[in-house]
Amino acid sequence: MSSFSELMAFQRRTEALNQTSQRLAWDQETVMPRGATAQRAEEMEAMEAVLHARRTDPRMGDWIEKASLENLTEVESANLRLLKRKFSRNSKIPADLAEALARETSLGQGIWAEARSREDFAGFAPTLEKVIQLRREEGEAMAQGEDGMGNAYDALVQDYETGATAESLGAMFDAMRPRLVALLDKVKGSSHQPKKLNGTFTPDDQMKFAHVLAERFGYDFNYGRIDKAVHPFSLGSGQEARITTRTVENDPFNCFYSTIHEVGHACYELGIDDQHLLTPLGRGISMGVHESQSRIYENQIGRSRAFTSWMYGAVREMFGDIGVENAEEFYATVNRVNDGYIRTEADELQYNLHVLLRFDLEQKLISGELAVADLPDAWNERFEADFGFAVTKPSQGCMQDVHWSVGLFGYFPTYSLGTVYSGNLNKAMRADLPDLDASLEKGDTSPATGWLRENLHQYGGLRDPRETITHACGFEPSEAPLMDYLEDKFSDIYKL
Question: Which residues bind Zn(2+) (predicted)?
């Protein structure tokens, strides 16, 4: 066997073990009995010990060095590039630190969920402090060396978006903020305000409709399933990608659009070419690119005038009178700009302001500039300044998201980066599919999802994140297409 073949055979087993570890995480957040938290943390620690040992096995370094001298194809070279990058980063992390992180973040998810249900930030704070300290140590370790980043936070960002830094992300977000704020002010000042939904939406009926929506967007239940979780998420790749959603009795859009969002993630994973199964290329290349898929499914397709025209009839058929008289009113209601605390429930216009708040605060938490004890006040002060009303309890504020409890520092900016990418993809897709709306009006999303599968999904990790978007769109991504889209859409809805 060539060195590359030996490397890939070894890595295939590592990928399979990682999929098994992910199933444990899915189980913990969906159906695991609460009393199993401590044991599950030990199980996750044990799995991480095995995985970290494989990811840092000295033989990998030898195989990578020798394979780089071999005559490789484009796909083989891309696999080698990703493995070399990950081996370098993993080798900088001590085994005991990797295991401690697995244990504390597994515990942290359960402690966060319990404390959140009691509105008890003080009860959660010691766990958050432990997780932050461990992640800070990990970031500092990875930032060392020629291929490292300048600081711990930038090093952590690489786990989610290779090549991005706080500086580059901040510059993009700074360019977005003035246009977002100006448009939001106009919308809130408009005399034309869409109706609110009004009806009876039982959890069981919401879940039935969630399955309908998932199938409409091409989710194949032979390779996945929908369950409920406190915080919706998608998990898995290759031949199995599961999703979760949640139901709120007086707000069915929470369930419907969480489902579409997570289906976007799952379809990205399921759409990757089978030749990449259980290889480094066999999963989404970054969370920014991943979010571009969930956001374009949810918003530019799922909240479009054309698709909501079909959706209006389907919702009326299942739920009866919903307080909205026609498809045009329903489109406006779906896209209504609402005051709200929760990021996952935010309208398209305010969503990015939620993300930018978290991006700024988590940088300060990792650097040590912001103490955990001061987080609620810092969050509440920033939230009121950005949104104009006050947070009244932790579950509305700094305890609403699961991310920090499980150590996902550097993840939040990819939500806005992915939203920016979705604006670019939508522009390119619409240029290629001028008759797309005629299909969406029938509830047929296949031209759009097929375009995304053809131009982006199938390649998996073949190209780095920004190059992936450039290849799909045919032009370099920027925030301009997203902002143009938002200004056109909301000026129309709100008669600006």
Answer: 261, 265, 291
